[in-house]
Amino acid sequence: LPSLSLPSSMHLIQVDSVQRWMEDLKLMTDCECMCILQSKPISIEKDEQNELILSSQYSTCDNLQLLLKRAWIISTELTRIAQKLEKNRWQRVHSMTVRVNCHVRSMINEYNSFTRNSSEEMHQFEKLLIDKCSEFTAFTERCIQTEDEQILKSMKSCINETLTTIAQYFGQLIELVLTHEAQNLLRQIELSDSVYITESAISSLFSLTQEGAHLCRIIAKEGGVVVLFKICRRDCFRCLYPQTLRTLASICCVEEGMHQLEKVDGILCLAEILTDNTHSEATHAEAAAVIAQITSPHLTFTQHLSSFLENMEEIVTALVKLCQEASSGEVFLLASAALANITFFDTMACEILLQLNAMKILLAACSDKHIVDTPYSRDQVVTILANMSVLDQCTSEIIQGNGVQLLMEMLFERSSSGNSAEVAACERVQQKSAVTLARLSRDPEVADAAVKLSCIPRLIKLCRSPAERNNSDSVLVACLAALRRLAVMSPDGLEDSDFQQLVKPRLVDSFLLCTNMEESFV
């Protein structure tokens, strides 16, 4: 019923747009009209400060989200003011300045309505920012009252300077506020024995980590990793381990988080969790996610993880077991991602995997479409196979586990959704499967199996047809390398034209020929 899909998707877009508009509406009110009202909150007794202020009905997490949205709006408006100022659009500069003034006052009032113990330093910055915004508004008001180009030119430098100062004060205030809130949440987690309060605080902390690396750095500097690992060492909070570990994985995307993890023997704690069979699968999976994060080959600051090597064998053993017993695709993905990263992290890991029959376990998992159910999972598996394929001993396991057939199937990996992340994962699967074939085909038995499974025609197709490889150059290079290796072992499998164009020339010449194929048809 293809005709029904369009109205359905349109309906979803409308609902999402309206919902987003409703959320943003309270932040985007007509500030010129509301300025006086919003900057003068209703005076009430301190102990009755619960029902009359709108933001007090929300949780800490909601309040922080509101604060961050307001901060984003102010930051965007300041950038736009600078752009309008460059073009001498004085009327627009003034109206936007009034709006920023209002947003700043609203943000400060909203924040003060739900926090009770803000520091003296924060109050000083609040006052400095409000005073500077008022001065800024007065400046721009004078600008729209004159048409003298000389006066406007002389005032422009003062306005630019004031705008820069406002941006600095605003940035420092937001930094103080976020640090203060992180401290409050961490204090709650550290001091509370209540599962409910601790769960709520960890949930709010996790929400903060999703706002980007800068917030993760603030949390790490305030001792977030130390506090969360304390939770992971308390049996009374076992039900919170998955949530706590998920938050730790987010914080450890920054260098400060990794340093903290090393200081508190975090690797040892993760190893203990992974090897303790009394923990739930969800806990094991989230511990695997932390391992995957801290061993990511994309990070440049993993070299100091010396304690990882001490616990590597235990961790790898536990991860292989988790892959073998995974009840869902998500659990398998987390465990296999950790293993894949570890094979980059240290070559000894490949030897441990070989001893644990990991190849057999991973190949068996790939035949279960409920477990290895996405290109992302296949990407992790083929990464492990590619890194293990440098060992001579693994070829017999590949043949016994029908691994060459799997690699052949992976050369056909295509995205079903067209999603950019999924397309990129499919390209990685194709590239790594070709790399693995090239490495393994040094063994005549593997090369013979690959030829019998028609790998050569598929590799030729990937080289000659850019659409088959999604125009990926990395896939092309890997396929050319695999084709050349197989051609040496089985020269009869290629037609003369394929040999002359794809095998005989230098690799770079064959590469250029294949990349220009699409252009020659235009």
TrEMBL record:
SMART domains tied to this protein: ARM
Pfam families reported for this sequence: Insc_C, INSC_LBD
Domain Protein inscuteable homologue LGN-binding stretches: 13-57
GO molecular function: cytoskeletal anchor activity
Signal peptide interval: none
Domain Protein inscuteable homologue C-terminal: 70-522
Gene Ontology CC: one annotated term: apical cortex
Annotated GO biological process: apical protein localization; asymmetric cell division; establishment of mitotic spindle orientation; regulation of asymmetric cell division
SUPFAM superfamilies: ARM repeat
PANTHER family: INSCUTEABLE, PROTEIN INSCUTEABLE HOMOLOG
Protein name: Protein inscuteable
